[in-house]
Amino acid sequence: MNLYAKLLERENQGKPVRVGLIGAGKFAAMYLAQVPRTPGIRLVAIADLAPANARTNLGRVGWSVGEIAGTLVIEDWQKIVSNPEIDIVIEATGNPIAAVEHILGAFRHGKHVVNVTVEADAFCGPILAQKAKEAGVVYSLAYGDQPALICDLVDWARAAGFPVVAAGRGHKWLPHFAQSTPETVWGYYGLTPEQAKIGGLNPKMFNSFLDGSKPAIETSAVCNATGLTPAPEGLLYPAGSVDEIPSLMRPRSEGGQLHHKGQVEVISSLQRDGTPIDYDIRFGVWVVFEGESEYIRRCFSEYGVKTDPSGRYACMYKRWHLIGLEVGISVASVGLRGESTGCATGWRADAVATAKKDLKPGELLDGEGGYTVVGRLMSAEASLAQACLPLGLAHGWKVLRAVAAGQPLRWSDVAFDTEVPAVRLRREMEKAASSGSEAARYGLPRRAAG
After folding, report:
1. How far apart are CA 76 and CA 67, in angstroms?
2. CB within 8 Å of 190: residues ≥ 6 apart
3. What confidence tens digit (pLDDT) does each residue in 391-411 have?
4. Which end of the chain has fewer CB atoms surrounding its CB within 10 Å, N or C?
5. φ, ψ for residue 333, nearest 5 deg
6. pTM for the complete prediction?
7. Which CA distances in Å does 416 have to 88, 390, 422, 432?
């Protein structure tokens, strides 16, 4: 690990990695807090729909008056992606439909992209990765967010010679959370609506984590980047402490809860009766790997590695993630090494929009964390076969026919705009999946004829 040494070298050479930022909300503000403390990095410009708010955020996270004055803050994102002084664009709007347009624009201008808006990656990451390759640039998930951290752990295990049995993240989960809405969310977090309002907390965003939408989105991105796949039932959220993960994440035939080896999963920090679990992985990430030989398993024992009772399955983990405070790892990796910190290598999973309630014709979908839909992790093959609508595009469209609660929405269930770039790109990816040559090109599952 020598990213810091390389950053110092670029600082001493007067050749910093030059960054442009689109979106200056909470995630981006956390990264901005680190920029003045990181050698070899120069933030050239910020684009945000509210430039005054972006400048306020710079002051709030500790930038000096002079540093703020010396940074271009504008509203027009196209001036970021076309700026010849920018090497890397960080997309941090959190708006997946807009993010796709921003990312494609950056590719057209030869810019590398660190994509914070994982919702966009979840529904078209494989084709974004291919477009980046065609443009000769790097496309990367954002380190600090859980998907990139999971990718890092999976890569560590495989590079060390361990087969990866399962990987994923933690979550505070009970089954009835899937029906939570922005109206009910604060009770589950132990807050009153008044406290949440004073804190400036967004109920829809927080609800997207609680109801399982965000876990579905993030594990979809992980599958597409690592080759792991979901269970047929989607995410099951088994409950357990960190020390119990090796026992939980082994095949069912061996006493665990995995449908298959090479699976993605989310571990709950709550027992089914709501009891909090001690030493949980709620805010962290983990990978379970296998000691294939007697010698390796003996090494696990000799060095105090916590395993399942057989001694075969072990776990490496991080109990926390620092979100935007860690994005600099992606910036340095992309800018100095030309390497992503997670990028789709194929289409293996999808976060599908599922009716949160009985939907009637004429209703408008309100996207993740809202009142109408919730995310469900499915295999790409199942999503394609059923022509499912991805969660990241389930916002603002009118429902055309009744959809029962718990059922996935299909493209034919909604009136969508075919001219939206994000829709066009997703439909292009789906079309490629029906062609043998194109499916191989994009690493997609080929849909059987008929």
Report:
1. 21
2. none
3. 999 999 999 999 999 999 999
4. C
5. -65, -45
6. 0.95
7. 32, 12, 11, 20
Residue type, 334: V
**C-alpha to C-alpha distance for 286 and 267, rounded to whole angstroms:** 9
Q: Tokens for 139? A: 């496309």
Q: What does the block give as tokens for 228?
A: 């792991």
Distance CA 266, CA 239 (A): 9
H helix runs in 82-145, sequence order: 96-108, 118-135
CATH of 349-417, one of 3.60.21.10, 3.90.1210.10, 3.30.300.210, 3.40.1110.10: 3.90.1210.10
CATH of domain 3-144+324-337: 3.40.50.720
**Six-digit token string for 88:** 């890397």
Helix, strand, coil percentages in the chain from 3-state DSSP, rounded to 5: 40, 20, 35
Give the pair of three-digit tokens for residue 60: 């709030």
What are residue 183's phi and psi, to 5 degrees?
A: -80, -30
**Residue 217, φ and ψ in degrees, nearest 5:** -60, -50
Residue 158 has pLDDT above 90, yes or no: yes
The angle formed by the CA atoms of residues 119, 195 and 285, to the nearest 5 degrees, is: 40
Q: What type of residue is 244?
A: E
For residues 439 and 294, give the distance between their C-alpha atoms in angstroms, rounded to a whole number. Answer: 40
Mean pLDDT of the chain: 95
Q: What is the pLDDT of residues 280-333, one digit of tens each?
A: 999 999 999 999 999 999 999 999 999 999 999 999 999 999 999 999 999 999
Instruction: Please tell me the distance from the alpha carbon of residue 212 to that of residue 376, in angstroms, as a whole number.
Output: 8
Determine the Cα angle at 188 with ends 182 and 193, to 5°. Answer: 55
What is the reported pLDDT for 448?
44
Ranges of each domain in the chain: 3-144+324-337, 147-173+212-321, 349-417
pLDDT digits (tens, 9 = 90+) for 347-395: 999 999 999 999 999 999 999 999 999 999 999 999 999 999 999 999 9
